[in-house]
Amino acid sequence: MDSVFLNKAAAAGLLSIAVAWICSAVASGVVPANVPVKPAFSVPGTENVSIAPYMAHADADRGEELARQICSSCHALVSAAADGVGPNLASVAGRPIATAAGYAYSSALLGQKEHVWSDQALSDWLTSPARFAPGTRMSLVGISSPEQRADIIAYLHRLAE
Questions:
Q1: CA 50 – CA 93 distance, rounded (Å)
Q2: How many CB atoms neighbour CB 119 within 10 A?
Q3: What would the pLDDT profile of 83-109 be if each residue is shown by its tens digit?
Q4: For an engineered disulfide with 81, which of 41, 76, 150, 159 has Cβ 3.0 to 4.6 Å away?
Q5: How far, in Å, CA of 97 to CA of 116, rounded?
């Protein structure tokens, strides 16, 4: 190898590093590193709506079927059962958030401890867990139908009895 080849290789390496650094600096200046205050768009059906009108017509039997389809793979639905991947949902309605004994909650939900699982809070959670508590470990995308959410909430009230 001659010295011209080594000089060319060194120059190519330094030039590549310089170009990558410049591209990174320009991209950091153009693209903000923080989340915007207002989303650029919203997916229809994921807005938080008042659940009270839907609760008047909620069907706990339909809610039980939905809860078994959607929730039971990760949550226990019987009061004496052990926690699954998620906490046991028996008596969750009306309970303070993130207070099931023995369950290790994410810091996202621990930040909500001063609130109670009211019908509206449950509805907002079921609409989009990630929006309700950013950073939650719950993988549910959300339930867009307020009727289905009301049915599940009615069933959760039945579990508390």
A1: 17
A2: 21
A3: 888 898 988 999 999 998 888 999 989
A4: 76
A5: 5
Q: In the chain, which ranges are continuous DSSP H helix?
A: 3-30, 52-55, 60-70, 107-110, 119-127, 129-132, 146-160
- DSSP-derived secondary structure letter, 34: S
Angstrom distance (rounded) from CA 7 to CA 40? 49
Report CA torsion sign: 118, 159, 100, 140: negative
Q: Which residues pair with 96 in a beta bridge?
A: 116
Written as one letter, the residue type at 99 is T
Cα–Cα distance measured from residue 28 to residue 76, given in angstroms and rounded to the nearest whole number: 45
Phi-psi region of 98 (alpha: psi -120 to 50; beta: other; left: phi over 0): left
The token pair at 147 is 């009727």
Per-residue confidence at 45, pLDDT binned at 50, 70, 90? low
Amino acid at 137: R
